[in-house]
C-alpha cells in the first residue's frame, strides 16, 4: 500500500468513555479504517484535557477520571479520507474532527 506524498491527516478528538454500539468508539474507528483499507490509524491517550463542556479530564490522583482524552490520527490520500468521513459521522455522537494537509516523507520501511 502506498500513500501519496501530498496526503491528509484526519485527527479525531474523543473521550475514552465514548461508545459505538456498546464498544469503545476509538476501537470502532480504527477497525472501520482498517476495513476500508486506510493506510493506518493510531490512538493516542492524553493525560489531561477538556472539550466543549470545559469539564477537566485528568489522570491526577485527586481528580480521577476514567474518561481521559483520546486522539485518533489517520493519514491517507484525500480521496480515502473523504470516503471515510461519512462513516465516521455515522458513529460519532460528539467530539472534534480536524483535517489538515500533510507531506508524507516515509511510510513503512525504506528497504535495505
UniProtKB/TrEMBL annotation:
Pfam families: DUF190
Superkingdom: Bacteria
UniProt record similarity statement: Belongs to the UPF0166 family.
Protein's name according to its UniProt entry: DUF190 domain-containing protein
Amino acid at each position: 500500500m502506498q500513500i501519496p506524498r501530498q496526503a491528509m491527516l484526519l485527527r479525531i478528538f474523543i473521550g475514552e468513555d465514548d461508545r459505538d454500539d456498546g464498544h469503545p468508539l476509538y476501537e470502532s474507528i480504527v477497525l472501520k479504517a482498517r476495513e476500508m483499507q486506510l493506510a493506518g490509524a493510531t490512538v493516542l491517550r492524553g493525560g489531561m484535557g477538556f472539550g466543549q463542556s470545559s469539564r477537566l479530564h485528568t489522570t491526577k490522583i485527586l481528580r480521577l477520571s476514567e474518561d481521559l482524552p483520546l486522539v485518533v490520527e489517520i493519514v491517507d490520500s484525500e480521496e480515502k479520507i473523504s470516503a471515510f468521513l461519512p462513516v465516521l459521522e455515522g458513529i460519532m455522537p460528539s467530539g472534534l474532527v480536524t483535517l489538515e494537509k500533510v507531506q508524507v516523507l516515509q511510510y513503512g520501511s525504506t528497504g535495505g
